[in-house]
């Protein structure tokens, strides 16, 4: 059970200076996992955690609020625990990582539904062209964030159609965060910056748009926050639907999402 506890401690960012046990933080396809051994096919770094750490309170959530699963498998003759479901793994138990109060992360105000190409068509087309973005992805972000509501305000304080945090909006020169055209253009500019930072990786860019670049850097990929993981999945599903709606994919591709 000590290994289980240490993995979960690592998930919430707790480190300890005393007698340490090695836990591996592994990165693959823009997602991070924790394991008691290096994962095949992942880029892993060793992290030392105290072997006598106390269990973090309030770590477990009610059914339906599970952020991830701890798995057990045999690797090179040894029992290994990991938060990634690799071939041969057996699920052990679920865990929850609560989003820090200061984080802007939220699941978004829009639901996965039929694409709406009628909403601000000129503005989205122009912003996508100006910042060399895939219009389908730009629309997927907007749809996930606000459902195209220019007056939307999230519980974390994000504003407008693209749900920009006030500090980010100021950095981007936004005068009125509730003006749809301003919000779309600023959101597109911000997304272009994130794509450049992450080498065109849509997953990490979406995670950073939601939870901030600091959270992505801290976890080496998508943070294990419930809100961010739900948001990234929502955007990915919407991206597929908007690509099909814009004629970039055959309609049959929707069966994959």
From TrEMBL:
Cross-referenced InterPro entries: Lysozyme-like_dom_sf, Transglyc_AS, Transglycosylase_SLT_dom_1
GO molecular function: peptidoglycan lytic transglycosylase activity
One cellular-component annotation, GO: membrane
Coiled-coil residue spans: none
BP terms from Gene Ontology: peptidoglycan metabolic process
Domain Transglycosylase SLT: residue ranges: 124-222
Family label: Belongs to the transglycosylase Slt family.
Name assigned to this protein: Transglycosylase
